[in-house]
Amino acid sequence: MNVVKTRVAVSAMVFCLMSAPTLAEDLRVTVWTGNDAHLKMLNGIAESFKENHPDVIVKFETVPVSDYTQKLTFQVAGGNPPDIAWMMEDAAPAFENAGLLMDIGPTVKAAQGYDFDDFSQPAMALWQKGETVYGIPFSTSPFMIYYNKDMFDKAGLEDPLALAAKGEWTLDKFQETAKKLAEANPGKWGFEFKDGEGYASRMTHALLPSIRAYGGDIWTNGQCGFDKPEAIAAVKQLHDMVFKDKSIVPPGEQGDYFSGNSAMTDNQISRASKMPEAGFNWGIAPLPTGPGGESPVIGQAGLVVFEQGKHKELAAQFVAHMTDKENVATMAQFFPPARKSVLDSEAFINGNKLVPAEQMKNVSSAITKGRVHPAHEKAPQILAAMAPRVDALWKPDANVEDALKGVCAAIQPLL
Amino acid sequence: MAAVTHTNEPGANRAPWLTLKYREMLEAWLFISPTFIGFLVFFLGPLVAIFYYSMTEWNLLSQQAAFVGLHNFNDALLVNPDFWHVVRNSVIFAVGLVPFNMALALTLALALSRPFFGVVFFRTVFFAPVVTSAIAWAIVWKFLLQGEGGVINQMLALVGIDGPNWLRDPNWAMAAVIVTRVIKMVGLNMILYIAALQAIPRDYEEAARLEGASRWQIFRMIIWPLLAPTTLIIMVLTTIGSFKVFDHIYQMTGGGPENGTLVLAFYIYQQGFKFFNVGYASALAIIMFVIVMALTLVQVMLRRKEME
């Protein structure tokens, strides 16, 4: 009988130990990247958080970029949001307006040595309303021209970096160069829009750099800008490049830059992590200038904390840790900083393992001068309304002006 | 003595209400409960819930739902012009796909129902796409159907035909999606027809041949009528499948160009999963359910009449 009692007592103790709340706390952070180099760096930051919070385990969860906002929304709707999310600029206003994001201002400002004012004001514009801080920009990444140096050499052409240094890297030169590159590399293309998605999910990213270089914008203050003369001129030039020069990868074709099928593309500095596997010599240069002068475009992502989260305060503390000066400097190799002190530092210019200092200076300059891609709380609806009109634009015999007026007619009610 | 024997009988200590009948019933419920609970939670529950959701204006992001009665149905059927455009696309897709799929499936089945050297190989070739991942299939076809670099157009160029940019040309995108879908799914219907053909007694055909019937007469007067039940099943399943098509559209055209392939299932996905208008998307799903149900009933009635 004693044996039975002992067994019951031991079993009860084991059960109690198993069911007792664990002391360690998990923080879930959703990110779009699954790149090994990125995750290694992020996990390093999570490890350093343990110095002051030894019981906290931070887990980064990768959600593919194409479904990122959608899956995040469903996690929120299902009552299981992550504690922290990496949020892209186009999704931020909708989440903010729905009251889903925590004001992390008091926590980050109180963090030791944080220096909140170090963040550049233009970079904070999307994430701050008055004194309320909805997020901290952690990647303020300008669009740059990536070029395949081998294809330029084969065509006997000066590369965009050299042309930019001489002040000759204009949209006209870009058009001329892309055409010569396509001619010199049969079966390949001179230029590919960002991620090969310029006719689909990245339709605004494809048009925005040129439109801004002409002095226009896609929309500002609730007014559509596609039908303005600057935008029409810019898009006409791109249209000619696609259908007359046949130098830009056209709709329905695959011409991946990273596989060596296009000589140039526009993308952000985080994509540099893909370049060591590309197998060709490469470089990055500023976007070409236009009649409106220099007008760099910035894509931005911020770290946000969800109101519904189980560990809100702790999550805000981790955001403060992840965006302190030291960690922002660490992440700057892939995710350009919004902190002025890091942006101006020699370490940012000289410390990138993949991009030489000469090219990083252009990145730094583009962040300082650039403007963020316009955001809107109805971004998905705007894109869906634009899609059929943009399809009509990307046809060989399209009337560009009429097609762009069609775009404005479709999206103006939503703006 | 008798009492001792009685207490040793199996089940002597059970509760008095647990008769053999109840015990068998309990066991039966226990056996089916894993599937039944799954059916309740993952099928019946959402099915009932969708009727309620369809009468709400529910934004997933703000998590605010308001009861709006039949407003969403009114919006879809009478106000929103996109809806009828989308229904039109779905009907075009079904009208293009169902006869093409069935005719091809029957032709292949007639060719491959009799044993000959290599028949298994050919059946496998035509059935293999059915078990291939739909997304992988669509991605491969997207490459093959490229405007200039695509294999299809390069082959057409060899015979002097300048092929269109299949998936970007509003005149061709729907046709391209239908054909690739038929090639993917025809193997399933082919197998159903082969099974039905093999079930037809050879005596009928032989007797007809002895009577001097031609091959066409044998097919028209004997085989085709005997295939009627299978044809009905295939027609209903293919029609339902054509209205539910999503993966092909998602991967190959995204509903474009110029909304030319924006079909009902994809439109529901767009409203629910992109714009997070769950109430409106639920109403659309119910409308789709009614359309498919009505079409199925019409087909069943027509075939019954024909068979009578």
From TrEMBL, chain A:
<dbReference type="Pfam" id="PF13416">
    <property type="entry name" value="SBP_bac_8"/>
</dbReference>
<protein>
    <submittedName>
        <fullName>Sugar ABC transporter substrate-binding protein</fullName>
    </submittedName>
</protein>
<keyword id="KW-0574">Periplasm</keyword>
<keyword id="KW-0732">Signal</keyword>
<dbReference type="GO" id="GO:0042597">
    <property type="term" value="C:periplasmic space"/>
</dbReference>
<comment type="similarity">
    <text>Belongs to the bacterial solute-binding protein 1 family.</text>
</comment>
<dbReference type="InterPro" id="IPR050490">
    <property type="entry name" value="Bact_solute-bd_prot1"/>
</dbReference>
<dbReference type="InterPro" id="IPR006059">
    <property type="entry name" value="SBP"/>
</dbReference>
<feature type="signal peptide">
    <location>
        <begin position="1"/>
        <end position="24"/>
    </location>
</feature>
TrEMBL record, chain B:
<feature type="transmembrane region" description="Helical">
    <location>
        <begin position="120"/>
        <end position="140"/>
    </location>
</feature>
<feature type="transmembrane region" description="Helical">
    <location>
        <begin position="28"/>
        <end position="53"/>
    </location>
</feature>
<dbReference type="InterPro" id="IPR035906">
    <property type="entry name" value="MetI-like_sf"/>
</dbReference>
<feature type="transmembrane region" description="Helical">
    <location>
        <begin position="172"/>
        <end position="197"/>
    </location>
</feature>
<dbReference type="GO" id="GO:0055085">
    <property type="term" value="P:transmembrane transport"/>
</dbReference>
<feature type="domain" description="ABC transmembrane type-1">
    <location>
        <begin position="87"/>
        <end position="299"/>
    </location>
</feature>
<dbReference type="Pfam" id="PF00528">
    <property type="entry name" value="BPD_transp_1"/>
</dbReference>
<dbReference type="InterPro" id="IPR000515">
    <property type="entry name" value="MetI-like"/>
</dbReference>
<keyword id="KW-0813">Transport</keyword>
<comment type="similarity">
    <text>Belongs to the binding-protein-dependent transport system permease family.</text>
</comment>
<dbReference type="InterPro" id="IPR051393">
    <property type="entry name" value="ABC_transporter_permease"/>
</dbReference>
<keyword id="KW-0812">Transmembrane</keyword>
<feature type="transmembrane region" description="Helical">
    <location>
        <begin position="218"/>
        <end position="243"/>
    </location>
</feature>
<protein>
    <submittedName>
        <fullName>Sugar ABC transporter permease</fullName>
    </submittedName>
</protein>
<keyword id="KW-0472">Membrane</keyword>
<dbReference type="GO" id="GO:0005886">
    <property type="term" value="C:plasma membrane"/>
</dbReference>
<feature type="transmembrane region" description="Helical">
    <location>
        <begin position="280"/>
        <end position="302"/>
    </location>
</feature>
<keyword id="KW-1133">Transmembrane helix</keyword>
<feature type="transmembrane region" description="Helical">
    <location>
        <begin position="91"/>
        <end position="113"/>
    </location>
</feature>
<keyword id="KW-1003">Cell membrane</keyword>
